[in-house]
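Sat 14:20. Reprocessing the chain from the morning session after the first attempt stalled halfway. Input below, unchanged.
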Amino acid sequence: MKPKAEKKILREFIKVIDDPDRAEKKFIKLSRIALTICVIFLFYCLSNGIETIENKYYFALLAFISGVSFGLAIWFIQAGTQTKIMVKHMSNESINRRIDEIDSICKEKGSE
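Finished this time. Tokens:
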């Protein structure tokens, strides 16, 4: 993994550790949105309204979007319910230590 990408991810982890309730609410909200999209598209695909569409590829597209949003909803629910558990096993000190290591590695590469 590139050092800048790892550093960005670690900073996001620090935000989650600082306020796990906010992160949990965000994930649950996103899962509700994704489930709503899934249900709307699924009902439209199963309704008579789909027969009025001229191009039948739209049916496949709507079914695909419905499936992807269902998968994302499951992932967001899992992330939301496991956020507090993850936070208990992570510490700001270890994350900050790794960010400092990444900074020192980047400085060494820059000076060469």
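The chain has four helices and no strands.
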